[in-house]
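To whoever picks this up:

The nightly regression suite flagged MarR family transcriptional regulator as changed. Nothing in the input moved, so I suspect the structure step. Input below, exactly as stored in the fixture:
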Amino acid sequence: MDEPQWLNADELEAWKALAGVLFLLPTALDSQLQRDSDLAMADYMVLVILSERDGRSMRMTELATSANTSQSRLSRIVARLEAAGYVTRQMAPDDRRAVLATLTEAGMAKLVAAAPGHVAQVRKLVFDRLSPAQVASLNEVARALSNPDDSATCEIST
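Regenerated output under the current build:
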């Protein structure tokens, strides 16, 4: 086995800082959403994605891609949201092999109710600590990291 290409000092410091964020943010954001809205972070993000689509509907395969998750994980998330009445699933009228997920009025109301607390938590934990230049850098870095190559998979958790 070849020797790994070890991180240099700058890379190691950056990695440790990012790893700290990866521990902090999901827990803090998920806790706030669970406490205030009885939603998991993954549930909230699926509701957001659907809310931004025309007709508040999209194919499950496209939704999985947009959410950076697998089909099976998305199915579990959507099943949970469907049981709560926030999303419906139905066959696509133009392709009986495809399934559409659609945000219901109750789902939109849940999202509207959850958004202020979530945004306040995101602002407190992230954006209140950054300058405009750092926000621009964060956007650039996050976009680069959220588009993994074909050899890696990045998923939202359930």
